[in-house]
Structures are given as C-alpha cells and as structure tokens.
Amino acid sequence: MTASARPPEESPILHLRVRFAETDQMGIAHHANYPVWMEAGRVQWLRAHGLSYRSIEESGVSLAVSGIELRYRQAARFDDLIAVHTHLRVARSRSMRFEYRLERADDAALLATGASVHVPTDRRGRAVRLPEAWLTPIAALVEPPS
Amino acid sequence: MTASARPPEESPILHLRVRFAETDQMGIAHHANYPVWMEAGRVQWLRAHGLSYRSIEESGVSLAVSGIELRYRQAARFDDLIAVHTHLRVARSRSMRFEYRLERADDAALLATGASVHVPTDRRGRAVRLPEAWLTPIAALVEPPS
Amino acid sequence: MTASARPPEESPILHLRVRFAETDQMGIAHHANYPVWMEAGRVQWLRAHGLSYRSIEESGVSLAVSGIELRYRQAARFDDLIAVHTHLRVARSRSMRFEYRLERADDAALLATGASVHVPTDRRGRAVRLPEAWLTPIAALVEPPS
Amino acid sequence: MTASARPPEESPILHLRVRFAETDQMGIAHHANYPVWMEAGRVQWLRAHGLSYRSIEESGVSLAVSGIELRYRQAARFDDLIAVHTHLRVARSRSMRFEYRLERADDAALLATGASVHVPTDRRGRAVRLPEAWLTPIAALVEPPS
C-alpha cells in the first residue's frame, strides 16, 4: 500500500489528474492551468533525465519564461488523467525552447499543444549564460521536431 | 517505462509534487494551495474506496464546502513530495467532515493538519440529503479520531 | 470613503494589484497568472463598452479560448499595480481575437504583450455562431493593429 | 487614460470582482480562492492604514500564515463584486490574528467569515519578534470583536 502510493518518477511523461479546483463554470479545465501543467511536465522531464530543476534553482539560475503559446483542441474535464509529453527543441546558453503535447491518457485524444521559451537568469532576474555543467547534459536531450 | 508513468491509484493516500507555480516569494508553497490539495486528497480517497466523486457530481449532487480549517506546521517547498492522508470523521445525510494530515513523504515530517465540512447540494446549490446509494457506502468508511 | 472603495468600472483598462499568492519563489508574478489577467481585462473591456460577459454566458454562449500567446518583457512584482490594455482585433461569428498590453501603471513600463483567440460555443462545448445580438455591437469595437 | 481607471486605495475595505478563472464546475467561486482574497484584503487594509506589506517583506520579515479558518455562507458567482472587510483582533510581537467578513457588495449579503493567524518570520522561515517599528503602529489598529 504505502510504497505503491508514490507516483512513478522514472518516466519523462507526466501524468496528472485534473483537479476540481482547476475546473471553471463551463465545466472544463480552465485554460490558465495549461501553462502550470506544461511547467510541471518539464520539471518531470528533467527529473526523468537525471536533471533536477530544484538543483538548478538552488545553484542560483532560473529558466525564466520569456514566452508561451498554447492551442487548445479538446476540453479536459474534472478527474481526467492527462499525459504531458515534453520535448526540448532548442538548448542554447541563452535560450531554450520546449514543446508540449497534452493528451487524455485513456484514449490518447489530443487536448492541446504548447510551447515555452526560456531565458536563463540569475537571482536578480538578469539574463545570464546557462552554466556548462547544466547546458551540456541538457543540450544532449534536444529532439528535432518530428 | 511508459506504462509505469501512470500514478498508482489504489492507495487512499494521495502523493503530489509541489509545483513551481504553487510557490510564493517566501520560497515556500503558498498556504492557499492546501485546500486544493485536501480536495484532491479526498477525491483520491473516495476513488481508492471505489467511489467516484465525478460520478457523484454527474448524478447532480455536489459536496459543497461549508467550512475549512488549516494549521500549518512546517513549510513545503518546490518539488517536495507531499502525502495527503484523508480521514472521514462524520458522514450524515446532510453533513460530512473530513480531516487531513499532510506530510512530506521523504521523512514523514508533519506539514499541516486540516479539516473540511461539506453539505450535499443539488445543481442549484440548495442543500439536499445525500442519496442513500452514496451515503451507505460512504458512512461505512467513517474512522473515529485516533 | 466607503463609496469610493469600489473600483471604477467605466474604464476599458483594467487595473489590478499583483497578489502575494501570485508570486513565485523567483520573487516575481508567476507567468501563468497572465492569462487570468488577460481574461479579467477582456471582461472589464466588454463591461466598459456596455457588454456583460456574464450575460453572454447566461444566454448559453461562451467564448471558449482556442489559443493564447504571451511574450514576457519585464517581471511584475508583488503589489505592483498593473494596467491591462485590451484590444479587439477580429470579431467574426465563429472567431474572435483579442490582443493585450500589460503595463506597470506607475511608469508605463511594458511587462508583457499577449493575444487570445476565441470560438463561440454552446453549453455542451460545441462551436456555434455568435448570435447577431452580440456580434453586431462587438464587431463595432474592432480596432485594427496600430 | 483617465485617472479614474485606478482602483481607489484609501479604503480599508478591498473590493474585487470574481474572476472567471476563479469559478468551478459548480458555477460558483471555488472555496480555495477565499484565502487568497483574505490575503489581498489584509494587504489593502494595511495600505489604507499607512502600512506597506511590501515594505515589511523587503525589511526581511514575513507574516507567515500559521492557520486559517473559513465558514462559507452563500456562494459567490462570476463577476460578483466582493467586499472584503478586514479586522485585526490580536497583534503581539510573535502572533497576529485577523478576521474577515466577505460580503457581496450589491446587497451586503454575507458570503463568508474567516480568520488567519500569523507568525513573524525571517527570510529563512524562522519565527522572530516583529520589530517594534512595525508592531507599534499595527497594535494601535487592533479592534476587539464587536
């Protein structure tokens, strides 16, 4: 019971349940949750690849978000199990781009596609170069668009 | 592996990771997330006991929240794995009370204790009796305070 | 004093204060709040033009969000007063596009630009034509990009 | 545009509109928004009394939340104008208690009552005494329960 209660964390695909608090009066998951899910997806994707976003943050570097895009295809509903697929498309010392595909886990229906662009910053929010110690392993994970 | 990427759902204890979006400028999880986590905890608890809150909602009955209480003991931080322990203390046709214990999964440190009181309502928000079909199995799950 | 405590609602520009709960551990307003602020901005913009989004919703039509874009220029901080400037760029029976400019009110510094695309839907989420009673007054408010 | 577009900030009573993103599929404002509104209410209350919570934070002291309570009386709906009345009940160097009354502005209907208890902490989250420079003016604002 207890051991099985932990989420499996070896997968780069994040699975999450739509929370009741995330619904709106249209009866669907509100669109402003998707950037939050994309963020959780890339944290999980980093973890699955042996990289801890928490450690990056603790080293004094943040991957500040400089832009997002989202296209909503089909509504997600309360308690739906969502699979967040994260793909790193660009990894340079001063810019990174992730793309996302959000699917309903049960039938793989496409719910949304999205992207986020990031700029490494220091604790004061100034743009910096991503340290090589992070850039090298991250850059090895870039997938060209299929 | 992909199949293993789904959260285990047989446990009444919900495990969740603190999302970056849930932190605040004090560097901790903002206190207003805890009612959201308690809610997700009771949905999971119901599911683990064979009861679907989504089905209750779809039958036209909601468990509207009439009160909450929370005591915060220790801060939760970004990426912490949190275990939400849910206990049903009262289950009557017109009132239910859940209690919660939120722990950091890694060391079982107590983060917060909480409670929520609920009133069954119909789609217009009017108080109703919880149908027997739901009340009977739920009432069987009441645990007296230890 | 008391009468003056209500927000002025005749302006199409929404002013809002960054809430503490909206900050993150980078010490800035989390990027997922901006779609929420854009949404509040267009509700206020509609109101200032004599149109109630609540009434549109109550008539059974929603302006579902089919896409968003955001470019973040400068961070917003706790308690900053933000001005959300909303502009309607496209208004057709089956599609609308709004653009936004978010500024810090004190010095008019540009914080972010954004856009949202909408599809009129019925209560079941199916795409419908926006009724003429709403389309006509809304279409009169389209501003071409400057 | 007009000066009137800024919210009036001299009042200790915060007025806010329920955001669409704050609704849930029950068609009401989700209960987890109320702690956020209470927090915004006390920030406004401090401001109206010449005290800046931002300045307190910048001095390295936070008023960490150690407990909250809420009783929900009547649902708030999308676009409702809410008045948050804040009252300071206890102000000691190591503990403060605020109470709140949330009303619908149009008809003064009582929506919820709440309370929050706070502990002054330093940047590492350790409990500290509230500096006299803050405590003295704050303690002068205590109102005994009516």
Bin the helical content of chain A: 10-25%
Name the biggest interface: A-B, 32 and 32 residues
What's the end-to-end separation of chain A, in Å? 40 Å
**What would you report as the Rg of chain A, rounded to the nearest angstrom?**
16 Å
Please provide the count of β strands of chain A: 5
Mean pLDDT of chain A: 93
Strand content of chain A: 25-35%
Major β-sheet of chain A, in short? 5 strands, antiparallel
The run of helices and strands of chain A is EHHEEEEH
Q: Tell me the quaternary state.
A: homotetramer
Q: Find the structural class of chain A using helix and strand composition.
A: alpha+beta
Low-confidence stretches of chain A: 1-5
Count of individual helical segments of chain A: 3
Strand order of the largest sheet of chain A: 1-3-4-5-2
Shape of chain A: globular
Describe the overall structure.
4 copies of one chain form a homotetramer. Chain A is of the alpha+beta class. Chain A contains 3 helices and 5 strands; from the N terminus they run βααββββα. A 5-stranded antiparallel β-sheet of chain A has the order 1-3-4-5-2. The termini of chain A are far apart. In chain A, 40% of the residues are buried. Chains B and C meet through loops of B and loops of C.
